[in-house]
Amino acid sequence: EVQLVESGGDLVKPGGSLRLSCAASGFSFSNTWMTWVRRAPGKGLEWVGRIKSNSDGGTTDSAAPVNGRFSISRDDSKNILYLQMNSLKTEDTGVYYCTAERELSGWYGTYTWFDPWGQGTLVTVSS
Amino acid sequence: SSEVTQDPAVSVALGQTVRITCQGDSLKSDYASWYQQKPGQAPVFIMYGKNRPSGIPDRFSGSTSGDTASLTITGVQAEDEADYFCNSRLVFGGGTKVTVL
C-alpha cells in the first residue's frame, strides 16, 4: 500500500524551530520528487517546497514566504522526507502535508500532479 | 504571472451539475490538477487535465479552454461537499467550497 505518514508537529513559540518528518512506503521513494504543502486555518492549500530525487540532482525549491527559514531534505536509505523549520512565525501555523510530485509527458504536453498525500501534522506557532 | 484564481464558493442542489473554474495565464500552456479536501482530511487527487485517476467516480470530469481549467461534477452527491483546489505550476488556487443543498 502506498503511504505517507507525517510526524513532528507541535506547539512552538515564535522564533522557534521544528523538524517535521514524512515516512514513505509502498513506492520508489528514492526516484520520486517530494513536496510539502500546508493549509493554514481558514485558508487554502499552499505549496511550501520540494526536493528532487538525487538522480535528478537532489535540489530544493521553496516558496517565497519560507525562503531562508525552511529547508527540505531526504534520507533515501530510510525513505524519510524532512522539513526543517526555523524562525517560525505565527503565520506558519497550519497542517503540513507531504506528498509526491508526479509527472507525465508526451506529445500532448506535460501533466503534473501530487499523489499520494499524508494525513498531515499540525504545527501551531503561538506564544 | 503564475497565480491561479478560483471562485470562493458555489452551491448546488443534490443531483444537479456544478462547474468549478480555475483561471490563470499558466493554464494557457500547462494542464491543471485538481484536489478534493473534506474537513479534517487530507487532500485527495481527483483529476489531471481531463483525466481521472483510478477510483474517482466518473461524475467528475475536467476540461481546459484558453486560460481556464474546469472541474465539472455531474449528478452531485452529498459526499461531494468539500473544498476543491486546482494547481498549476506548483501554485494552488484559493479553493472553491462546494455546498450541496
Key terms:
heterodimer; A: 127 residues; mainly beta; seven-stranded mixed sheet; four-stranded antiparallel sheet; 11 strands; 0% helix; 56% strand; B: 101 residues; six-stranded mixed sheet
Structure, briefly:
Chain A contains no helices and eleven strands. Chain A has 127 residues and is mainly β.
How would you portray this structure in words?
The complex is a heterodimer of chains A (127) and B (101). Chain A has 127 residues and is mostly beta strands. Chain A has strands spanning 3-7, 11-12, 18-25, 33-39, 45-51, 60-62, 70-75, 80-85, 94-106, 109-117, 121-125. In chain A, the strands form two sheets. In chain A, strands 2, 4, 5, 6, 9, 10 and 11 form a seven-stranded mixed beta sheet that branches. Chain A has a four-stranded antiparallel beta sheet with strand order 1-3-8-7, with no helix packed on it. The radius of gyration of chain A is 15 Å and the shape is globular. Chain B is 0% helix and 50% strand. Chain B has no helices and ten strands. In chain B, β4 (33-37) and β5 form a beta hairpin. The radius of gyration of chain B is 12 Å and the shape is globular. The mean pLDDT of chain B is 96. The A-B interface holds A 37, 39, 44-47, 50, 61, 97, 99, 104, 109-120 and B 29-31, 33, 35, 37, 42-45, 48-49, 51, 53, 83, 85, 87, 89-95.
